[in-house]
From TrEMBL:
<feature type="region of interest" description="Disordered">
    <location>
        <begin position="174"/>
        <end position="212"/>
    </location>
</feature>
<keyword id="KW-0964">Secreted</keyword>
<keyword id="KW-0879">Wnt signaling pathway</keyword>
<keyword id="KW-0358">Heparin-binding</keyword>
<dbReference type="InterPro" id="IPR006212">
    <property type="entry name" value="Furin_repeat"/>
</dbReference>
<dbReference type="InterPro" id="IPR009030">
    <property type="entry name" value="Growth_fac_rcpt_cys_sf"/>
</dbReference>
<feature type="compositionally biased region" description="Basic residues">
    <location>
        <begin position="176"/>
        <end position="191"/>
    </location>
</feature>
<protein>
    <recommendedName>
        <fullName>R-spondin-2</fullName>
    </recommendedName>
</protein>
<dbReference type="Pfam" id="PF15913">
    <property type="entry name" value="Furin-like_2"/>
</dbReference>
<feature type="domain" description="R-spondin Fu-CRD">
    <location>
        <begin position="9"/>
        <end position="110"/>
    </location>
</feature>
<keyword id="KW-0716">Sensory transduction</keyword>
<comment type="similarity">
    <text>Belongs to the R-spondin family.</text>
</comment>
<feature type="domain" description="Spondin-like TSP1">
    <location>
        <begin position="114"/>
        <end position="167"/>
    </location>
</feature>
<keyword id="KW-0217">Developmental protein</keyword>
<dbReference type="InterPro" id="IPR000884">
    <property type="entry name" value="TSP1_rpt"/>
</dbReference>
<dbReference type="InterPro" id="IPR043601">
    <property type="entry name" value="Rspo_Fu-CRD_dom"/>
</dbReference>
<keyword id="KW-0732">Signal</keyword>
């Protein structure tokens, strides 16, 4: 090296006092560092964050990562570490994982998630394991897990859901349908009011005759 004692020339085959390394030893990577308006060359064993090592017959160089939101990369189109807040997936960086993949928070990576099939048709409307005898019941539909997740800690989407339904057959064959308690109480209350009104009407008629 032309300026061997100078630390800036460490690992250089040729070096400039003002511009630092111009050529590097065979195994090292040439990195052009910029500080304000000044730039100078360095010879490094590994490239800094945001760069990757590109080996060529002429000279190994540190090339900048061009992948969006990437902090360090293995090659031009494969990121090994994403910036804070981004998930790594197949060499790229994402705010959220693509469909079919789940976020592994501890590693900030997207891994294969739980895949489920299509929903089945809604089942028979029933209540208390009966398909008659009530006005309202519940019907259920399900779907199967097609592929289990890569990690046991990743939950699967719900595979069963129910909804309220109106029973097609309200009266059970050979049985007596009973109204719900609320309806029965309401009918009884209405009957008591009618009886009370009739009683008051009778008293009024009797009083009216006496007065005549």
């Amino acid at each position: 090296a032309s300026y061997g004692p100078n630390p800036i020339c460490k690992g250089c085959l040729s070096c400039s006092k003002d511009n630092g390394c111009i050529r590097c030893q065979h195994k090292l990577f040439f990195f052009l560092r910029r500080e304000g308006m000044r730039q100078y060359g360095e010879c490094l064993h590994s490239c800094p964050s945001g760069y990757y090592g590109l080996r060529t017959p002429d000279m190994n160089r540190c090339s900048r990562c061009r992948i969006e939101n990437c902090d360090s990369c293995f090659s031009r189109d494969f990121c090994t570490k994403c910036k804070t807040g981004f998930y790594s997936h197949r060499g790229r960086c994402f705010r959220g994982c693509p469909p079919g993949f789940a976020a592994l928070e501890e590693l900030m990576e997207c891994v294969e998630g739980c895949e489920v099939g299509q929903w089945s048709e809604w089942g028979t409307c029933s209540r208390n394991n009966k398909t008659c005898g009530f006005k309202w019941g519940l019907e259920t539909r399900t779907r199967q897990i097609v592929k289990k997740p890569a990690k046991d800690t990743i939950p699967c989407p719900t595979i069963a859901e129910s909804r309220r339904c109106k029973m097609a057959v309200r009266h059970c064959p050979g049985g007596k349908w009973r109204r719900p308690a609320k309806t029965k109480d309401k009918k009884k209350k209405k009957k008591n009011l009618m009886e009370r009104a009739q009683k008051q009407h009778s008293i009024f008629l009797a009083t009216d005759k006496t007065s005549q």
